[in-house]
Known about the structure:
With 447 residues, the chain is an all-alpha fold. It has helices at residues 10-31, 34-44, 49-52, 54-77, 79-103, 106-133, 140-166, 175-179, 183-194, 198-217, 245-274, 283-301, 308-328, 335-341, 351-363, 366-375, 382-391, 395-409, 419-431, 439-445.
Amino acid sequence: MQSDINDSSPKGYFVSISIIGLLFFIFGFVTWLNGSLIPFLKIACELNQAEAYLVSLAFYISYTVMALPMSAVLIKTGYKNGMVLGLLAMAVGALIFIPAAHTRIYPIFLFGLFVMGAGLTILQTASNPYVVVIGPRKSAAVRIGFMGVANKAAGIFSPLIFTALMLQGIDKYSNASLGVLNGVDRAAALDQLANRLVLPYILMAVILVLLAGMIKLSPLPEINNADEGNASGSGPERTSILQFPQLVLGAIALFFYIGVEVMAGDTIGMYGRSLGISFFGKLTSYTMAFMVLGYLVGIATIPRIIKQETALIISAALGFIVSLCVLFTSPMNTGISTALLSWLGVSPIPDSVFFVAILGFANAMVWPTIWPLALDGLGKFTERGSAILVMAIAGGATIPPLYGLLSDTHSPQLSYWILLPCYLVIFLYAIKGHKVKSWRQTAITGK
């Protein structure tokens, strides 16, 4: 695959990869706030479990709705200007939180999240192809792994910052404390809680606008995939993005992967709160810390020790095993986390919650390995292929809300069974799906 970015000097490469790394940090900071925002809005807007997980639905469904339009925008504006538009859209979404907080009208919060997700859609559609084509494809997973470290490092910090700013004194907003208040006092207390969001989201909007200006003035080069000719690499010319089975099947695998990734990060806080954990707002940081660890292991081993395909197989199998541990370990005992984390001075958590966090380690290298496998050989279809893969982020809009519905009627712990078929789909793509290069190959030979 040829692109302008491959011809850059070492200095230009460093500048480009640093800018993309900063954008991935922004992705992570905004995205993984949701894990703390869900229990916060559940209290402030007086929601049940299923309603609270509409945060995930509103945020991630925008990827499906906006991915193809955003790919068309990128074709018109170029990647760099598209990134600027994405950051500005995110700033608008952050500002929508101001009237939402003042009124405590939940649909306005959801609309703000949708707009922020739309901004992230164009950023994701633009930035992931950069990382894939900036160097040799066999090491693309390593570069995406570095981006993942930036993304999940932000995911560690954002819940901690949110907890420090938003969740101080949250005990006075417990069901028992609010239950003794009359209607007027209860509403006033919840209004005060919701208004804590105003200043942080104003600051977020300002930072996003400044970043948009920085990207506009940066020397970030454009990707040029238009001259690659026959994207299939052999056989007749491909005329449609749907003629690439490795992409379509990869998008399906990513759909289920994003579902389990979001569940590991966004449901752990609510699950911890249901078990009486007082610092539930920080629990997403546990998941993100394990994801960072997983990325570092992947960076150290791919491709020197294991291939991208092998890493994906291991990740899917490990995710399945850890999911079983979530289902069948104690929600009361803290022995495992105490044994493994006490030397770090980290607060122990129930074993089943701890295994939800460990899912972060299993998940870490799934996204970095699926992207290069799915985009392999797309050539001039890379932009549209990237958009298809970004649309798969809708898994985060579908599977966590389904978990919320199950949690309202069944045990929150046992509702994690929906993780199992998701990891099975990822495993099938890892062992076979990415090898399929034509639908005829699938239908006739089965190979």
